[in-house]
Design brief:
This protein is of the alpha/beta class. It has one domain: Type I PLP-dependent aspartate aminotransferase-like (Major domain) (Aspartate Aminotransferase, domain 2), CATH 3.40.640.10. The protein has 8 helices and 9 strands. The strands form 2 sheets. It has a 7-stranded mixed sheet with strand order 1-9-8-5-4-2-3, with helices on both faces. The protein starts with a helix and ends in a 7-residue tail after the last helix.
């Protein structure tokens, strides 16, 4: 299903030229190429902040850290997802609450989300799967009703467009308070190695997340 060799053959010259530039400049960490990619993705998604990081798991964990939840807070997410979606919740000593999916799409079921909400619920992590967007009209409505954060797991959804009930459109990853994506080689948008990014339109949240990623430093 994922022919990485075939993909590479198609863009071999472009990749080789860019890799040579990186090696010549020795700009291996957040260099000009990464910054250019960040700007391109911000433009493509029509979002204010794309914050690159090491991988998709880090993106999820750091995005959750940015929401400043406290141990014991509950986070609702899908029971049909990769381990990382739940792993990061537990690593931060939050409580994962798994709910079932809609069998037509394999995306999280909004009805199940609302049934699982308690006074300790603080966030929802919908997981967009197989290029399909979760029912974000319903999820965002529930989040507003109960004053919850929405963190999109967009590792398998990047590039998808959600059409709201009123006919407006937006890319997945731009719909909630913050989103995380992965550039693992087999993802919709893959890298040659690990990589990830956090996406948000919230200036204050982006500022705090950049500090987390860089050990509190804004300047070296």
């Amino acid at each position: 299903m994922v022919d990485l060799k075939g993909q590479y053959d198609f863009i071999r010259d472009e990749v080789s030229d860019n890799m040579a530039q990186i090696l010549d400049n020795s700009t291996f960490i957040n260099g000009p190429m990464v910054k250019a990619f960040q700007k391109d993705m911000e433009s493509y998604l029509n979002i204010k902040h794309v914050i690159p990081c090491a991988n998709g798991t880090d993106a999820l964990q750091i995005a959750l850290m940015g929401l400043k939840l406290v141990p014991g807070d509950e986070v609702i997410t899908s029971d049909f997802t990769f381990a990382a979606s739940v792993e990061v919740i537990s690593l931060l000593k939050l409580k994962p609450v798994l709910v079932d999916v809609d069998l037509k799409t394999f995306n999280i079921d909004p009805i199940a989300i609302e049934k699982a909400i308690t006074p300790k619920t603080k966030a929802i992590i919908p997981v967009h799967l197989f290029g399909q967007c979760a029912d974000m009209d319903s999820i965002l409505g529930i989040a507003k009703k109960y004053n919850l954060f929405v963190l999109e797991d967009n590792a398998q959804g990047i590039g998808a467009t959600h059409t709201f009930a009123d006919g407006t459109e937006a890319k997945t990853g731009t719909l909630g308070h913050v989103a995380a994506t992965s550039f693992f080689p087999s993802k919709n948008l893959g890298a040659y190695g690990d990589g990830g990014a956090i996406l948000t339109n919230d200036d204050k949240l982006a500022y705090f997340i950049r500090a987390i990623i860089n050990h509190g430093m804004y300047k070296r």
